[in-house]
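Researcher: Going back to the complex we discussed earlier. I've cleaned up the inputs and rechecked each line, so this should be the final set. Can you rerun the prediction on the complete assembly and write out the structure?
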Amino acid sequence: MTIRFGLLGAGRIGKVHAKAVTGNPAAKLVAVSDAMPAAAQAIADQYGCDVRTIEAIAAAKDIDAVVICTPTDTHADLIEQFVKAGKAVFCEKPIDLSLARVKQCLEVVRAHKGTLMVGFNRRFDPHFQAVRGEIDKGTIGLVEMVVITSRDPGAPPVDYIKRSGGIFRDMTIHDFDMARFLLGEEVSEVSAMAAVLVDPAIGKAGDSDSVQVMLKTATGKMAVISNSRRATYGYDQRIEVHGSGGSVAAENQRPVSIEVATGAGYTRPPLHDFFMTRYTEAYAAEIAAFIDAMGGKAQASPSGEDGLLALALAEAALKSVAEGRVVKMSEIL
Amino acid sequence: MTIRFGLLGAGRIGKVHAKAVTGNPAAKLVAVSDAMPAAAQAIADQYGCDVRTIEAIAAAKDIDAVVICTPTDTHADLIEQFVKAGKAVFCEKPIDLSLARVKQCLEVVRAHKGTLMVGFNRRFDPHFQAVRGEIDKGTIGLVEMVVITSRDPGAPPVDYIKRSGGIFRDMTIHDFDMARFLLGEEVSEVSAMAAVLVDPAIGKAGDSDSVQVMLKTATGKMAVISNSRRATYGYDQRIEVHGSGGSVAAENQRPVSIEVATGAGYTRPPLHDFFMTRYTEAYAAEIAAFIDAMGGKAQASPSGEDGLLALALAEAALKSVAEGRVVKMSEIL
Amino acid sequence: MTIRFGLLGAGRIGKVHAKAVTGNPAAKLVAVSDAMPAAAQAIADQYGCDVRTIEAIAAAKDIDAVVICTPTDTHADLIEQFVKAGKAVFCEKPIDLSLARVKQCLEVVRAHKGTLMVGFNRRFDPHFQAVRGEIDKGTIGLVEMVVITSRDPGAPPVDYIKRSGGIFRDMTIHDFDMARFLLGEEVSEVSAMAAVLVDPAIGKAGDSDSVQVMLKTATGKMAVISNSRRATYGYDQRIEVHGSGGSVAAENQRPVSIEVATGAGYTRPPLHDFFMTRYTEAYAAEIAAFIDAMGGKAQASPSGEDGLLALALAEAALKSVAEGRVVKMSEIL
Amino acid sequence: MTIRFGLLGAGRIGKVHAKAVTGNPAAKLVAVSDAMPAAAQAIADQYGCDVRTIEAIAAAKDIDAVVICTPTDTHADLIEQFVKAGKAVFCEKPIDLSLARVKQCLEVVRAHKGTLMVGFNRRFDPHFQAVRGEIDKGTIGLVEMVVITSRDPGAPPVDYIKRSGGIFRDMTIHDFDMARFLLGEEVSEVSAMAAVLVDPAIGKAGDSDSVQVMLKTATGKMAVISNSRRATYGYDQRIEVHGSGGSVAAENQRPVSIEVATGAGYTRPPLHDFFMTRYTEAYAAEIAAFIDAMGGKAQASPSGEDGLLALALAEAALKSVAEGRVVKMSEIL
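Model: Rerun complete. Updated structure for the full complex:
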């Protein structure tokens, strides 16, 4: 059976998903929609699909599922609309920037017994999956401490920053999800520090560009995240997990892995330039997982609940910075 | 303009090329042919193309180019047939196991001003290309010595060995081409040693399974190749080039690059299992290069001449082993 | 000129310093003292020096400097006694577990214009020094974030734990000093989390065995430290520093650096077993630096003040854990 | 029991051994001799030993063993003189540049039941020893192929080259010994290629500066050595051994192992500058092994016989280059 897809949003991430869908033998891209017709048409031309309105896609008999890649403030509404229309929904993170709105949206999904999967792509990176695999196999014993490094090559435009919900909801949210994925227990306490070190304009916009966060679970497992909007050497994405029996780590990936040796030393090329090249395989794998979930082979995961919990950690981090104290998750949820 | 392809041979390597052709936006797979109808049909079903006879493909108006993936002993005949039919030809290595037959075939290609490209896929590996790129940029000065390690994870069946032309023509030929690609000068002298260390059955079949070869050019540049039909840790493919100003090396690639640390030490997973996973990107890139050559953007390279010269090095290596001496290329060509 | 040393304390770390002193061409070990005569005699026999009482060493005309390696609760008294006796003093960290006592002791040192150096050995590790060297050269621009990983191979006996002042004063103190060494600015805020994950007996003794700490300076530079009393794969000691122009990192060291490849993957041996093998060169270099300071070639560094400030960070971390909040250093000092 | 040493030769390598002897708790440096009195005096001053003539050292009752670090052309004579005088002899490689003279010398050693150890220091490098250790433990199964890379940072003065016996006897000889150490079987065939790529003056002096050698044993085990007198990135010393069950490799060592990441990529510092810093531990360990051999704890190894066999491989390589063929060791020995 081939799953027939509609794509909502033909921007940067929309293109990534268009490629993932068309590259999957079990899927077919039927239609694309975008507020900017030229963007939709470009994808339609490349992959031979229709351009349709959102309403037409919701009403379409030849579409089983949608991938939502529109601006964040439309996510929750679209999820509700398409769940009600009986389509399976894959939505880019975050569901919404407001915790209350997310909860409301998940109510609607539950009420309609909808299929909702949230795009925490990193869970599908083969290297991070292998890290989780070693944990599951017991190679490192009981998980004790998780260390996550996530540094973007450069800051986005301040206009983007202003609409992003801030670094914790926009960038760290991926690391919050990864921490949950690896800790294997819910976080109960959050402490965060934030600074503006990269670009004063980010500070003027009310956001930070450099943050570090500590997490702790009820049984004492801990995680630490360090983030920056700047990394001159490429997209820095590393995780390590320490357990009672050992540790497992996923190092950075690079597009070309030669090494040049001269009198100046040994030099390897920079890392991937950003998420689209770094997580190419992950994007394909998450669409495959979504298709599996639609076929009943697996639960849709990461779920809407996972989206909610990562956002709640971002809220807690913001509150921790504002109040200079450890915030308990029971204060947030 | 879309290049319309016929695929000759639907075996293991045929499937690789079917994927490369269909994944290329400038190409379309129109038809496939194979002595075993079921094999051809499987590819036709997966990619939505026709099954046709070789003759039909040669005569087809809707086919511009063919990819030859049939058994080695049919290569030269097919190249001649399709060049005469006005198709551009991409042929898997080797053109033939006989130097004389290869020369004859290349005469026909020249006489018909045909486009012929030979499948030395490793030239298109992004890591090896980056090595060559550093040489071209002058990073390491003048090339002096090349060191090539190429070890297969396991020996092929003895039936395959018997038809293969022997390890130098079947396996080392890739390394001979890589040595030529990196030395930037023609080899003038060859010395080789060979042994049966992996499987006595290979020795009984008249072949070796472990070899090492030294090459030298007229100006004294040298290369050394070491090959084995056995590598328990995966497909071992490394090159290093030393020059007057430094060196550049391409290390092994692995599908998953985590590291586990326990009391037993630090462990990374094995390498790729074989060429199909190791050289995925290279197969796609060589088809892209072939398409560029058809469009006149570049010369078809590696050329039939490159195929001839790599085979000549294999001949020289065989003669060197047989006679226990350095063989000059002027004795062979 | 040869500096003539007395060694106070002939235990594990006393032996390390005896070796460092006797191996230094500008130094001579004249006498050793220990509460356990057999321990002192063993060092005397090995290096051909006298066994003397502490009082005799303080009064000795043939001794210029002492190395204090006695139990922590004697450090401050001995520093005062030997500074008054006109000897240069190298004292193992910490000066004392009480901030008030340390301040008092440093008053005495200042009043007598004494030379005091504190044994933060890691500053002298060639790899960490090279990290600092790159910062000083400006290679990575302005320092923004420091990440320190420090994991002991195993927990010390609970008896030791009880007298140690707790993990922050005993173990993390080295990382606090390293953070100050690398941040290049004083820390103004501290937030810490602590847990008992390794050994419940450590918890019963009122201490933690797993901690993570975030630090921040007035200008927003940040550091994060993660510590555990357990690392099955050896003594895990890593630092990385991120700046506006790049980053610099010091990886783990191992006594033997081979790599074995089999079907199970690629395995390197475990790390050094603990600080005595990991920091061999650092111990020799810190004694050399002390000798240089005595000869007026450099300031004694790390100074008593450095000892005080690292201890103050430990105090702040303890307070942060107890009160679940960010602690300002102005509350401590 | 303390072994009392005389040191013959106070040049560069003499200083290395003076340090190794005086640093060994079981040894004492009693006297040093050199044709240049100032050189001998410098060592005597540094380590507090006598300056004596060679004759006086041979006759001395307070000397048990000598370390010969004089020019190569004096080695064989001194070995004979000191074996006859009843001293244990440690001699720097080579025993002599003439195979006949070496054989004669070893006859004298045997006749006097002397203890003779030859300074193939690399056998004592902890990393190379660990490689051998894995072979002995069976980790990689039966040894099949050895790959040795040895590249000097720069060429020695042509005056040295002229007296050196040529690159095979001077430089490759270490790799010949290492190949024998790792193959675990005697070499039966040798094939070599040589070129002048680094410095034409070396060619004018009748020597080569870039060579590659293949070795083979009677059972088909093989080794390949590649050498150059130039490596801009430091002293390049690597070995890898492939066996039926896996492989083991020793990578290069560097004095400082940080990594800097910037927009230009990831850079590690160059390797050790040359053998004195690279093999510091090996020099100490080989003197310790010599002392053990004198105490009867082990055979003196590498023996005079090992010195002879490595030289014979150098002879074979020279003959192979001269005659353009594989040379059988039965032609040489």
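Model: Worth noting: The mean pLDDT of chain A is 96.
Researcher: Good, that matches what I expected from the previous run.
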